[in-house]
Amino acid sequence: MSQKYCYQYPHPAVTTDVVVFTLRDERLQLLLVKRGGEPFKGSWALPGGFLDIDEDLESCAKRELQEETGVSGVYLEQLFTFGKPDRDPRERVISVAYYALIPSDRLELKASSDAADADWFPLDELPELAFDHNQVIRIAHERLVSKLSYSTIAFQFMPEAFTLSELQSVYEILRNEPLDKRNFRKWISTLDQVEETGEQRRTGQHRPAKVYRMKHPNRVEIIR
Amino acid sequence: MSQKYCYQYPHPAVTTDVVVFTLRDERLQLLLVKRGGEPFKGSWALPGGFLDIDEDLESCAKRELQEETGVSGVYLEQLFTFGKPDRDPRERVISVAYYALIPSDRLELKASSDAADADWFPLDELPELAFDHNQVIRIAHERLVSKLSYSTIAFQFMPEAFTLSELQSVYEILRNEPLDKRNFRKWISTLDQVEETGEQRRTGQHRPAKVYRMKHPNRVEIIR
DNA sequence: TATCCTTTGTGTAATCCAGACACTTAGTAT
DNA sequence: ATACTAAGTGTCTGGATTACACAAAGGATA
Protein backbone atom coordinates (compact mmCIF):
# COMPACT_ATOMS: atom_id res chain seq x y z
CA MET A 1 0.00 0.00 0.00
CA SER A 2 1.18 3.50 -0.72
CA GLN A 3 2.21 6.08 1.87
CA LYS A 4 -0.57 8.54 1.26
CA TYR A 5 -0.80 10.63 4.47
CA CYS A 6 1.94 13.23 4.29
CA TYR A 7 3.06 16.03 6.58
CA GLN A 8 5.60 18.82 6.51
CA TYR A 9 7.18 17.53 9.72
CA PRO A 10 7.43 13.96 11.06
CA HIS A 11 4.48 12.86 13.20
CA PRO A 12 4.47 10.14 15.83
CA ALA A 13 1.77 7.49 15.91
CA VAL A 14 -0.63 7.64 18.85
CA THR A 15 -2.13 4.62 20.58
CA THR A 16 -4.17 3.97 23.66
CA ASP A 17 -3.46 1.02 25.93
CA VAL A 18 -5.78 -0.11 28.69
CA VAL A 19 -4.90 -1.80 31.96
CA VAL A 20 -8.04 -3.79 32.72
CA PHE A 21 -8.31 -4.82 36.37
CA THR A 22 -10.75 -7.23 37.88
CA LEU A 23 -11.08 -9.48 40.92
CA ARG A 24 -11.22 -13.17 40.13
CA ASP A 25 -10.63 -16.11 42.45
CA GLU A 26 -9.90 -13.80 45.37
CA ARG A 27 -7.04 -12.14 43.47
CA LEU A 28 -6.44 -8.93 41.61
CA GLN A 29 -6.08 -9.90 37.98
CA LEU A 30 -5.65 -8.10 34.70
CA LEU A 31 -6.36 -8.73 31.09
CA LEU A 32 -3.58 -9.43 28.61
CA VAL A 33 -3.76 -10.26 24.93
CA LYS A 34 -1.31 -12.34 22.97
CA ARG A 35 0.11 -10.33 20.10
CA GLY A 36 -0.76 -11.75 16.70
CA GLY A 37 1.66 -9.58 14.69
CA GLU A 38 5.10 -8.05 14.84
CA PRO A 39 6.72 -6.64 16.83
CA PHE A 40 6.69 -8.88 19.90
CA LYS A 41 4.59 -11.45 18.02
CA GLY A 42 3.46 -14.12 20.46
CA SER A 43 4.20 -12.00 23.52
CA TRP A 44 1.53 -10.95 25.96
CA ALA A 45 0.65 -7.26 25.97
CA LEU A 46 -1.93 -4.81 27.17
CA PRO A 47 -4.99 -4.48 24.99
CA GLY A 48 -4.69 -1.34 22.92
CA GLY A 49 -4.35 0.04 19.47
CA PHE A 50 -3.96 3.01 17.21
CA LEU A 51 -6.06 6.11 17.60
CA ASP A 52 -8.39 6.80 14.71
CA ILE A 53 -7.78 10.25 13.31
CA ASP A 54 -11.21 11.57 14.25
CA GLU A 55 -11.61 9.63 17.46
CA ASP A 56 -11.42 11.03 20.96
CA LEU A 57 -8.72 9.49 23.18
CA GLU A 58 -11.20 8.15 25.70
CA SER A 59 -13.42 6.78 22.94
CA CYS A 60 -10.44 4.91 21.59
CA ALA A 61 -9.73 3.37 25.00
CA LYS A 62 -13.40 2.45 25.38
CA ARG A 63 -13.38 0.86 21.97
CA GLU A 64 -10.36 -1.29 22.83
CA LEU A 65 -12.02 -2.30 26.06
CA GLN A 66 -15.24 -3.19 24.29
CA GLU A 67 -13.43 -5.17 21.63
CA GLU A 68 -11.37 -7.18 24.10
CA THR A 69 -13.81 -7.72 26.95
CA GLY A 70 -17.23 -6.96 25.58
CA VAL A 71 -17.95 -4.65 28.50
CA SER A 72 -18.86 -0.99 28.44
CA GLY A 73 -20.03 1.50 30.99
CA VAL A 74 -17.31 0.58 33.47
CA TYR A 75 -14.92 2.83 35.32
CA LEU A 76 -12.21 4.15 32.98
CA GLU A 77 -9.61 6.76 33.81
CA GLN A 78 -6.64 8.20 32.00
CA LEU A 79 -3.45 7.01 33.65
CA PHE A 80 -0.35 8.44 32.04
CA THR A 81 1.13 9.06 28.61
CA PHE A 82 4.23 7.14 27.67
CA GLY A 83 6.48 8.36 24.92
CA LYS A 84 10.09 7.27 25.18
CA PRO A 85 11.48 7.61 21.64
CA ASP A 86 12.44 3.93 21.37
CA ARG A 87 9.49 2.25 23.06
CA ASP A 88 8.24 0.80 19.76
CA PRO A 89 10.77 -0.50 17.23
CA ARG A 90 8.54 0.26 14.22
CA GLU A 91 8.16 3.99 14.54
CA ARG A 92 7.77 6.68 17.16
CA VAL A 93 4.67 5.83 19.18
CA ILE A 94 3.04 7.87 21.91
CA SER A 95 0.80 5.73 24.08
CA VAL A 96 -1.93 7.26 26.18
CA ALA A 97 -2.59 4.67 28.87
CA TYR A 98 -5.93 4.22 30.62
CA TYR A 99 -7.01 1.85 33.33
CA ALA A 100 -10.40 0.24 33.81
CA LEU A 101 -12.09 -1.60 36.66
CA ILE A 102 -14.49 -4.41 35.82
CA PRO A 103 -17.05 -5.72 38.29
CA SER A 104 -16.53 -9.38 39.04
CA ASP A 105 -19.87 -10.39 37.52
CA ARG A 106 -19.20 -8.93 34.08
CA LEU A 107 -16.10 -10.62 32.78
CA GLU A 108 -17.21 -12.78 29.90
CA LEU A 109 -14.15 -12.56 27.68
CA LYS A 110 -14.51 -12.74 23.96
CA ALA A 111 -11.27 -13.07 22.06
CA SER A 112 -11.19 -10.34 19.48
CA SER A 113 -10.23 -10.65 15.84
CA ASP A 114 -6.89 -8.89 16.08
CA ALA A 115 -5.71 -10.73 19.18
CA ALA A 116 -4.73 -14.37 18.81
CA ASP A 117 -5.71 -14.91 22.42
CA ALA A 118 -6.74 -13.05 25.56
CA ASP A 119 -6.67 -14.10 29.19
CA TRP A 120 -6.67 -12.95 32.79
CA PHE A 121 -3.45 -13.01 34.81
CA PRO A 122 -3.00 -12.48 38.53
CA LEU A 123 -1.01 -9.30 39.04
CA ASP A 124 1.78 -11.16 40.81
CA GLU A 125 2.10 -13.83 38.12
CA LEU A 126 2.56 -11.77 35.00
CA PRO A 127 4.51 -13.08 32.03
CA GLU A 128 7.14 -11.01 30.26
CA LEU A 129 5.32 -8.29 28.40
CA ALA A 130 5.77 -6.48 25.12
CA PHE A 131 6.94 -2.85 24.89
CA ASP A 132 7.09 -0.99 28.22
CA HIS A 133 3.88 -2.59 29.41
CA ASN A 134 5.37 -3.87 32.67
CA GLN A 135 6.03 -0.25 33.60
CA VAL A 136 2.54 0.81 32.55
CA ILE A 137 1.03 -1.86 34.78
CA ARG A 138 3.21 -0.91 37.71
CA ILE A 139 2.06 2.70 37.49
CA ALA A 140 -1.57 1.66 37.08
CA HIS A 141 -1.35 -0.52 40.17
CA GLU A 142 0.23 2.30 42.17
CA ARG A 143 -2.59 4.61 41.10
CA LEU A 144 -5.23 2.06 42.06
CA VAL A 145 -3.70 1.43 45.48
CA SER A 146 -3.35 5.11 46.20
CA LYS A 147 -6.93 5.87 45.11
CA LEU A 148 -8.15 3.14 47.45
CA SER A 149 -7.28 5.29 50.43
CA TYR A 150 -9.00 8.51 49.41
CA SER A 151 -11.87 7.50 47.14
CA THR A 152 -14.60 4.94 46.69
CA ILE A 153 -12.88 3.47 43.63
CA ALA A 154 -12.96 -0.07 45.07
CA PHE A 155 -16.77 -0.05 44.81
CA GLN A 156 -16.32 -0.24 41.04
CA PHE A 157 -15.33 -3.89 41.45
CA MET A 158 -18.69 -4.72 43.04
CA PRO A 159 -21.67 -6.17 41.19
CA GLU A 160 -24.99 -4.33 41.42
CA ALA A 161 -25.98 -6.12 44.60
CA PHE A 162 -23.54 -7.31 47.23
CA THR A 163 -23.15 -8.05 50.91
CA LEU A 164 -20.94 -6.13 53.31
CA SER A 165 -18.76 -9.21 53.76
CA GLU A 166 -18.16 -9.30 50.03
CA LEU A 167 -17.26 -5.62 50.05
CA GLN A 168 -14.89 -6.19 52.95
CA SER A 169 -13.31 -9.08 51.10
CA VAL A 170 -12.61 -6.78 48.14
CA TYR A 171 -10.80 -4.34 50.40
CA GLU A 172 -8.88 -7.16 52.02
CA ILE A 173 -7.71 -8.48 48.67
CA LEU A 174 -6.72 -5.06 47.38
CA ARG A 175 -4.94 -4.03 50.57
CA ASN A 176 -3.61 -7.52 51.14
CA GLU A 177 -4.43 -7.56 54.85
CA PRO A 178 -7.32 -8.64 57.07
CA LEU A 179 -9.67 -5.95 58.34
CA ASP A 180 -11.77 -5.76 61.47
CA LYS A 181 -15.41 -6.40 60.65
CA ARG A 182 -16.94 -3.89 63.06
CA ASN A 183 -14.56 -1.10 62.18
CA PHE A 184 -15.00 -1.77 58.49
CA ARG A 185 -18.79 -1.58 58.76
CA LYS A 186 -18.62 1.56 60.86
CA TRP A 187 -16.39 3.14 58.23
CA ILE A 188 -18.66 2.07 55.37
CA SER A 189 -21.66 3.56 57.12
CA THR A 190 -19.92 6.92 57.58
CA LEU A 191 -19.28 6.97 53.82
CA ASP A 192 -23.02 6.97 53.19
CA GLN A 193 -22.52 5.33 49.81
CA VAL A 194 -24.56 2.12 50.12
CA GLU A 195 -28.14 1.28 51.00
CA GLU A 196 -30.00 -1.92 51.80
CA THR A 197 -31.98 -3.42 48.96
CA GLY A 198 -34.28 -5.20 51.43
CA GLU A 199 -33.20 -8.54 50.00
CA GLN A 200 -31.25 -11.19 51.86
CA ARG A 201 -28.73 -13.67 50.54
CA ARG A 202 -28.47 -17.25 51.78
CA THR A 203 -25.21 -19.06 51.03
CA GLY A 204 -24.60 -22.14 53.09
CA GLN A 205 -26.01 -23.20 56.39
CA HIS A 206 -25.79 -20.04 58.38
CA ARG A 207 -27.36 -16.67 58.93
CA PRO A 208 -28.25 -14.90 55.67
CA ALA A 209 -26.61 -11.58 54.84
CA LYS A 210 -28.36 -8.33 54.02
CA VAL A 211 -27.90 -7.25 50.43
CA TYR A 212 -26.76 -3.72 49.59
CA ARG A 213 -26.41 -1.59 46.49
CA MET A 214 -24.46 1.59 45.79
CA LYS A 215 -26.37 4.83 46.05
CA HIS A 216 -24.46 6.26 43.07
CA PRO A 217 -23.20 3.28 41.07
CA ASN A 218 -21.29 5.27 38.47
CA ARG A 219 -19.71 7.85 40.72
CA VAL A 220 -16.32 7.58 42.39
CA GLU A 221 -16.38 9.86 45.42
CA ILE A 222 -13.36 11.53 46.96
CA ILE A 223 -13.46 10.81 50.66
CA ARG A 224 -11.57 11.86 53.75
CA MET B 1 7.84 23.38 1.40
CA SER B 2 6.90 19.92 0.31
CA GLN B 3 5.04 17.31 2.38
CA LYS B 4 7.88 14.88 2.78
CA TYR B 5 6.94 12.79 5.83
CA CYS B 6 4.43 10.18 4.74
CA TYR B 7 2.60 7.37 6.49
CA GLN B 8 0.24 4.57 5.58
CA TYR B 9 -2.37 5.88 8.03
CA PRO B 10 -3.05 9.44 9.17
CA HIS B 11 -1.04 10.55 12.21
CA PRO B 12 -1.95 13.27 14.66
CA ALA B 13 0.55 15.91 15.68
CA VAL B 14 1.78 15.78 19.28
CA THR B 15 2.58 18.79 21.40
CA THR B 16 3.42 19.47 25.01
CA ASP B 17 1.96 22.43 26.88
CA VAL B 18 3.18 23.55 30.27
CA VAL B 19 1.20 25.26 33.01
CA VAL B 20 3.89 27.24 34.81
CA PHE B 21 2.86 28.28 38.32
CA THR B 22 4.62 30.71 40.58
CA LEU B 23 3.88 32.95 43.54
CA ARG B 24 4.28 36.65 42.81
CA ASP B 25 2.94 39.61 44.76
CA GLU B 26 1.21 37.30 47.25
CA ARG B 27 -0.79 35.64 44.49
CA LEU B 28 -0.71 32.42 42.56
CA GLN B 29 0.23 33.38 39.01
CA LEU B 30 0.95 31.55 35.82
CA LEU B 31 2.88 32.17 32.67
CA LEU B 32 1.15 32.86 29.37
CA VAL B 33 2.62 33.68 25.99
CA LYS B 34 1.00 35.76 23.28
CA ARG B 35 0.68 33.74 20.12
CA GLY B 36 2.70 35.12 17.21
CA GLY B 37 1.10 32.97 14.51
CA GLU B 38 -2.17 31.46 13.44
CA PRO B 39 -4.38 30.04 14.76
CA PHE B 40 -5.43 32.30 17.64
CA LYS B 41 -2.79 34.84 16.58
CA GLY B 42 -2.59 37.54 19.24
CA SER B 43 -4.36 35.43 21.87
CA TRP B 44 -2.70 34.39 25.10
CA ALA B 45 -1.90 30.71 25.43
CA LEU B 46 0.11 28.25 27.47
CA PRO B 47 3.75 27.90 26.49
CA GLY B 48 4.19 24.77 24.46
CA GLY B 49 5.04 23.37 21.10
CA PHE B 50 5.47 20.39 18.88
CA LEU B 51 7.31 17.31 19.99
CA ASP B 52 10.50 16.62 18.09
CA ILE B 53 10.39 13.16 16.58
CA ASP B 54 13.30 11.85 18.66
CA GLU B 55 12.55 13.79 21.80
CA ASP B 56 11.14 12.39 25.02
CA LEU B 57 7.84 13.93 26.16
CA GLU B 58 9.27 15.28 29.38
CA SER B 59 12.32 16.65 27.57
CA CYS B 60 9.99 18.52 25.27
CA ALA B 61 8.16 20.08 28.20
CA LYS B 62 11.46 20.98 29.85
CA ARG B 63 12.64 22.57 26.64
CA GLU B 64 9.50 24.72 26.38
CA LEU B 65 9.92 25.73 29.99
CA GLN B 66 13.56 26.61 29.47
CA GLU B 67 12.81 28.60 26.33
CA GLU B 68 10.01 30.61 27.93
CA THR B 69 11.31 31.16 31.45
CA GLY B 70 15.01 30.42 31.35
CA VAL B 71 14.67 28.10 34.33
CA SER B 72 15.53 24.43 34.60
CA GLY B 73 15.71 21.93 37.40
CA VAL B 74 12.31 22.87 38.78
CA TYR B 75 9.39 20.62 39.67
CA LEU B 76 7.70 19.31 36.55
CA GLU B 77 4.96 16.69 36.43
CA GLN B 78 2.81 15.24 33.69
CA LEU B 79 -0.76 16.45 34.13
CA PHE B 80 -3.10 15.01 31.53
CA THR B 81 -3.28 14.37 27.81
CA PHE B 82 -5.85 16.31 25.83
CA GLY B 83 -7.00 15.06 22.49
CA LYS B 84 -10.47 16.18 21.46
CA PRO B 85 -10.54 15.82 17.66
CA ASP B 86 -11.33 19.49 17.06
CA ARG B 87 -9.15 21.17 19.66
CA ASP B 88 -6.84 22.61 17.02
CA PRO B 89 -8.32 23.92 13.74
CA ARG B 90 -5.20 23.14 11.71
CA GLU B 91 -4.96 19.41 12.16
CA ARG B 92 -5.51 16.73 14.76
CA VAL B 93 -3.31 17.59 17.73
CA ILE B 94 -2.73 15.55 20.86
CA SER B 95 -1.40 17.71 23.67
CA VAL B 96 0.43 16.17 26.60
CA ALA B 97 0.12 18.78 29.34
CA TYR B 98 2.64 19.23 32.15
CA TYR B 99 2.70 21.60 35.04
CA ALA B 100 5.71 23.22 36.68
CA LEU B 101 6.29 25.07 39.93
CA ILE B 102 8.84 27.85 39.97
CA PRO B 103 10.38 29.18 43.18
CA SER B 104 9.62 32.83 43.67
CA ASP B 105 13.28 33.85 43.42
CA ARG B 106 13.87 32.36 39.99
CA LEU B 107 11.42 34.07 37.68
CA GLU B 108 13.48 36.20 35.36
CA LEU B 109 11.38 35.98 32.21
CA LYS B 110 13.02 36.11 28.86
CA ALA B 111 10.68 36.46 25.93
CA SER B 112 11.49 33.70 23.50
CA SER B 113 11.87 33.93 19.77
CA ASP B 114 8.63 32.23 18.83
CA ALA B 115 6.45 34.07 21.32
CA ALA B 116 5.69 37.71 20.59
CA ASP B 117 5.33 38.31 24.31
CA ALA B 118 5.18 36.46 27.62
CA ASP B 119 3.84 37.53 30.98
CA TRP B 120 2.59 36.40 34.36
CA PHE B 121 -1.14 36.48 35.12
CA PRO B 122 -2.87 35.96 38.46
CA LEU B 123 -4.90 32.78 38.26
CA ASP B 124 -8.13 34.65 38.92
CA GLU B 125 -7.49 37.31 36.28
CA LEU B 126 -6.83 35.23 33.22
CA PRO B 127 -7.61 36.54 29.74
CA GLU B 128 -9.47 34.47 27.17
CA LEU B 129 -7.11 31.74 26.08
CA ALA B 130 -6.39 29.91 22.84
CA PHE B 131 -7.42 26.29 22.25
CA ASP B 132 -8.73 24.44 25.32
CA HIS B 133 -6.13 26.03 27.55
CA ASN B 134 -8.65 27.33 30.07
CA GLN B 135 -9.61 23.72 30.74
CA VAL B 136 -5.98 22.64 30.96
CA ILE B 137 -5.33 25.33 33.55
CA ARG B 138 -8.40 24.40 35.56
CA ILE B 139 -7.26 20.79 35.77
CA ALA B 140 -3.71 21.81 36.65
CA HIS B 141 -5.01 24.00 39.45
CA GLU B 142 -7.19 21.19 40.78
CA ARG B 143 -4.18 18.88 40.77
CA LEU B 144 -2.04 21.43 42.57
CA VAL B 145 -4.67 22.07 45.25
CA SER B 146 -5.26 18.40 45.82
CA LYS B 147 -1.52 17.61 46.03
CA LEU B 148 -1.20 20.35 48.64
CA SER B 149 -3.05 18.22 51.13
CA TYR B 150 -1.13 15.00 50.79
CA SER B 151 2.37 15.98 49.64
CA THR B 152 5.09 18.53 50.19
CA ILE B 153 4.57 20.00 46.73
CA ALA B 154 4.15 23.54 48.08
CA PHE B 155 7.78 23.52 49.18
CA GLN B 156 8.69 23.71 45.51
CA PHE B 157 7.64 27.35 45.53
CA MET B 158 10.23 28.18 48.20
CA PRO B 159 13.66 29.66 47.54
CA GLU B 160 16.68 27.83 48.94
CA ALA B 161 16.49 29.63 52.26
CA PHE B 162 13.28 30.80 53.87
CA THR B 163 11.61 31.56 57.16
CA LEU B 164 8.68 29.64 58.60
CA SER B 165 6.50 32.73 58.26
CA GLU B 166 7.26 32.81 54.55
CA LEU B 167 6.41 29.13 54.25
CA GLN B 168 3.16 29.70 56.11
CA SER B 169 2.34 32.59 53.82
CA VAL B 170 2.74 30.28 50.80
CA TYR B 171 0.25 27.84 52.27
CA GLU B 172 -2.13 30.68 53.11
CA ILE B 173 -2.02 31.99 49.55
CA LEU B 174 -2.51 28.55 48.01
CA ARG B 175 -5.30 27.55 50.38
CA ASN B 176 -6.74 31.03 50.41
CA GLU B 177 -7.29 31.12 54.15
CA PRO B 178 -5.36 32.21 57.23
CA LEU B 179 -3.63 29.50 59.25
CA ASP B 180 -2.79 29.31 62.92
CA LYS B 181 0.91 29.93 63.48
CA ARG B 182 1.41 27.40 66.25
CA ASN B 183 -0.49 24.61 64.56
CA PHE B 184 1.30 25.29 61.29
CA ARG B 185 4.72 25.08 62.92
CA LYS B 186 3.74 21.94 64.80
CA TRP B 187 2.65 20.37 61.53
CA ILE B 188 5.82 21.41 59.69
CA SER B 189 7.96 19.95 62.41
CA THR B 190 6.18 16.58 62.20
CA LEU B 191 6.94 16.52 58.47
CA ASP B 192 10.65 16.51 59.23
CA GLN B 193 11.40 18.17 55.90
CA VAL B 194 13.17 21.38 56.90
CA GLU B 195 16.22 22.19 59.00
CA GLU B 196 17.67 25.40 60.41
CA THR B 197 20.53 26.91 58.48
CA GLY B 198 21.79 28.68 61.59
CA GLU B 199 21.29 32.04 59.87
CA GLN B 200 18.80 34.68 60.93
CA ARG B 201 16.90 37.18 58.83
CA ARG B 202 16.17 40.75 59.96
CA THR B 203 13.41 42.57 58.09
CA GLY B 204 12.01 45.63 59.83
CA GLN B 205 12.16 46.70 63.42
CA HIS B 206 11.31 43.50 65.17
CA ARG B 207 12.64 40.13 66.21
CA PRO B 208 14.64 38.38 63.46
CA ALA B 209 13.43 35.06 62.10
CA LYS B 210 15.36 31.82 61.93
CA VAL B 211 16.21 30.74 58.40
CA TYR B 212 15.44 27.23 57.19
CA ARG B 213 16.20 25.08 54.17
CA MET B 214 14.63 21.90 52.84
CA LYS B 215 16.32 18.65 53.74
CA HIS B 216 15.57 17.22 50.29
CA PRO B 217 15.12 20.20 47.97
CA ASN B 218 14.26 18.19 44.86
CA ARG B 219 11.97 15.62 46.41
CA VAL B 220 8.20 15.89 46.78
CA GLU B 221 7.18 13.61 49.63
CA ILE B 222 3.83 11.95 50.01
CA ILE B 223 2.63 12.67 53.52
CA ARG B 224 -0.20 11.64 55.79
C1' DT C 1 -37.00 -30.84 68.17
C1' DA C 2 -32.60 -30.16 70.29
C1' DT C 3 -27.79 -29.54 69.22
C1' DC C 4 -24.05 -28.15 66.36
C1' DC C 5 -21.89 -25.47 62.95
C1' DT C 6 -20.93 -21.35 60.41
C1' DT C 7 -21.29 -16.69 59.10
C1' DT C 8 -23.84 -12.32 60.08
C1' DG C 9 -24.30 -8.48 62.82
C1' DT C 10 -23.50 -5.27 66.66
C1' DG C 11 -21.03 -1.52 71.03
C1' DT C 12 -17.65 0.36 74.13
C1' DA C 13 -13.29 1.85 75.89
C1' DA C 14 -8.58 3.64 74.89
C1' DT C 15 -5.55 6.18 72.09
C1' DC C 16 -4.07 9.34 68.71
C1' DC C 17 -4.50 13.54 65.84
C1' DA C 18 -6.39 18.18 64.61
C1' DG C 19 -7.95 22.47 65.87
C1' DA C 20 -8.74 26.43 69.06
C1' DC C 21 -6.49 29.63 71.62
C1' DA C 22 -2.68 34.03 74.15
C1' DC C 23 1.44 35.53 75.88
C1' DT C 24 6.55 36.22 75.98
C1' DT C 25 10.82 37.35 73.28
C1' DA C 26 13.92 40.01 70.46
C1' DG C 27 14.95 43.53 67.86
C1' DT C 28 14.33 48.68 65.86
C1' DA C 29 12.83 53.47 66.39
C1' DT C 30 11.86 57.43 69.12
C1' DA D 1 13.24 53.98 78.99
C1' DT D 2 9.21 53.18 76.13
C1' DA D 3 6.62 51.79 72.18
C1' DC D 4 6.04 49.04 68.29
C1' DT D 5 6.14 44.79 65.46
C1' DA D 6 6.76 40.19 64.02
C1' DA D 7 8.93 35.75 65.90
C1' DG D 8 8.42 32.04 68.70
C1' DT D 9 6.26 28.76 71.95
C1' DG D 10 2.31 24.79 74.94
C1' DT D 11 -2.09 23.10 76.56
C1' DC D 12 -6.67 21.62 76.33
C1' DT D 13 -10.64 19.72 73.92
C1' DG D 14 -13.35 17.03 70.55
C1' DG D 15 -13.45 13.87 66.97
C1' DA D 16 -11.68 10.04 64.73
C1' DT D 17 -9.31 5.68 64.61
C1' DT D 18 -8.13 1.35 66.70
C1' DA D 19 -8.61 -2.79 69.52
C1' DC D 20 -11.54 -6.13 70.99
C1' DA D 21 -15.95 -10.40 72.00
C1' DC D 22 -20.38 -12.15 71.97
C1' DA D 23 -25.25 -12.88 70.52
C1' DA D 24 -28.35 -13.95 66.43
C1' DA D 25 -29.99 -16.51 62.41
C1' DG D 26 -30.33 -20.17 59.60
C1' DG D 27 -29.26 -25.07 57.83
C1' DA D 28 -27.77 -29.81 58.83
C1' DT D 29 -27.91 -33.65 61.57
C1' DA D 30 -28.92 -36.94 65.23
UniProtKB/TrEMBL annotation, chains A, B:
PROSITE patterns: NUDIX, NUDIX_BOX
Nudix hydrolase domain: residues covered: 9-145
An annotated Gene Ontology molecular function: hydrolase activity
InterPro entries according to UniProt: Nudix_hydrolase, NUDIX_hydrolase-like_dom_sf, NUDIX_hydrolase_CS, NUDIX_hydrolase_dom, WH-like_DNA-bd_sf, WH_DNA-bd_sf, WHD_NrtR
Cofactor(s) needed by this chain: Mg(2+)
Keywords carried by this UniProt record: Hydrolase
The family this protein is said to belong to: Belongs to the Nudix hydrolase family.
Record protein name field: NUDIX hydrolase
Native source organism of the sequence: Solemya velesiana gill symbiont
